[in-house]
Amino acid sequence: MEPLAVNRHHCSSISVALLAALTVSLSTAQAEEPANPAPSVLEKFTLRYDLNAGETIRYEVTHQAKTKTRIRGAEEISQVHTVSQRHWDVLTATEDGEAVFEHVVDSVEMTQQRGEEEELRWSSESGEEPPMEFSVVAKQLGTKLATVTINSQGNETHREDHAGSKASLGMGSLTLQLPEEPLALGASWSVPHEIRVRLENSEIKVIKIRERYTLEKVQTGVATISLHSEPLTPISDDSVRAQVVQQLSNGEIRFDIDNGRMLSKQLDWDETVVGFQGANSLMEYRARMTERLVDKVQRTATRP
């Protein structure tokens, strides 16, 4: 495999991952104690979505990544930087917590560079034609990527994909699968997922992973949740490991408890894989993804 192959796949995946936006909303049933004191270790919180018909929930997502590969003595560095504005339009919501929303990416600023090639830059608000590498993203801006129905625990009960991809590259799903039981501080829950990787013979292999969430603290109405994911399927092939590490989510999520809205999310990657394409090959992957609420919930007329 040529040195550029890994980087082209990675940069293409980043562009696709832009369309898989990753927002999660939680709410907690609070005890009857006053809101100001810190919660005791015995207090438990019920995590549930709390969406309302007619809401528009907006986020800004920034993703930057640097990948260095060395294969047969040839070294190459690829870098990407993407800032996107996206939102959920909540169409309907029922008293039992079921909600239907549309996911839309409104605008994007993208930068990409591979090795010694000229850096590519494009903003969807510039009025300029996008480079070919960004054309797929450009065509889908402002359109409904998916219409999703979820229950109060965040489980998707129905999904219709219009233009987007389900690829997440470790950035998370559109919704988070929440625990059924109330949690005390320090308690954790796990969510199983699967990652598909391509073997050297072009066959597809499924790698099972586990995402572990821990309720770290609740302070002044904000819940802090840590996230750590790890593969459950044994991985002996370093070429497979190089694909998997880029899709594992590790970081921190902060939520507005009262309104059930994510305030921010940060995921970080710092991985090195030796021998992924031969004994002297090396891949270093450094990346960060941040997501933040950019304005208050906007309310519009409830749709029929």
TrEMBL record:
Signal as UniProt keyword: yes
Highest taxon of source: Bacteria
Signal peptide: 1-31
Sorted UniProt keywords: Signal
Protein name: Secreted protein
